[in-house]
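Recall from the previous lesson that a structure prediction takes nothing but the amino acid sequence as input. Here we apply that procedure to Lectin family glycoprotein receptor from Schizosaccharomyces cryophilus. The sequence below is the only information supplied.
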Amino acid sequence: MIASMRIFRIICFFALALGVIAQSNELERLSIKPPYINHGMRSLWWEYGGSTIIDKKNGIFLTQDLQHQSGWLSTRLPTPTSSFEVLFQFRVSSESRNLFGDGMGLFLTEERAKTGPVFGFTDKFNGYGIFFDTYNNDRPGTVFPRVVVMKGDGKTSYDIDHDGKANEIEGCSALHLHSTDYTLGKLKFDKNAKKLRLELAFDASSDFIKCFELDDVDMPATAFLSFSARTGELSENHEIHSITSRTITNIDDEFTPEFSKEELKGSTTKRSPWKRRFIFVLISLIVVFSVFSLRSYQQKQEKIRRSPVL
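The prediction returns the following tokens.
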């Protein structure tokens, strides 16, 4: 019986340890979900400004479908020095079916966000900017909306007049950006391999599609994660519903596909963290009970074997 109790305690210890490990890769300081802010209208890990409006139930609106707005959302603390993934759910929408703009940006830069002309972010930044450009200013033959990637050196301005043509180091088409409800983006940075990859899923039933993958990425030693958006003469809503970040070992690390789909707003398969933990604990208890029962059965069989035969 003493041996059985020892086994029981050891299994319980490992079950709890596994629970801690399963949660330890999440980066709370780089994540934000409803209701986003506390009663003081502040977020512990994020700051925001410009035209950004936070609706506790419906999302973070960097801009509304109004002219001449610029808004941003930025982390208070930098990204980790290890490899990481950022899963973000967002929506770009407008009452107009044909005319809308200008777009939104995702940044990994030395600078925290400040209101500026580059999709609501300051110009001449140092780091990487990923732009979801929804309006074609002057790039004949290019399909919009489009994702454009720029490596900023702290001196070079973004080529606004030609939609980043002079700055683009990678990009992809985002033709379905307006035709769906919510879009899911998955940004991965592999520090050891020096790679940066963006994948997009334009609705809950779609698989992730690789937009780009950069090699020889020179990420700033201190990089802040920011999102921003801007409207001009044309307008659209730029809304962020959730951002979930976590550490990874390499760029090909894949968490369960269900995680990605569960993050989509309104998904019928969505599970809260408490439900996931409950399921994990339940499975652990079943395993513990099974091992304990097996051990008890073995002890009974041993007693029967040792009993004298009459």
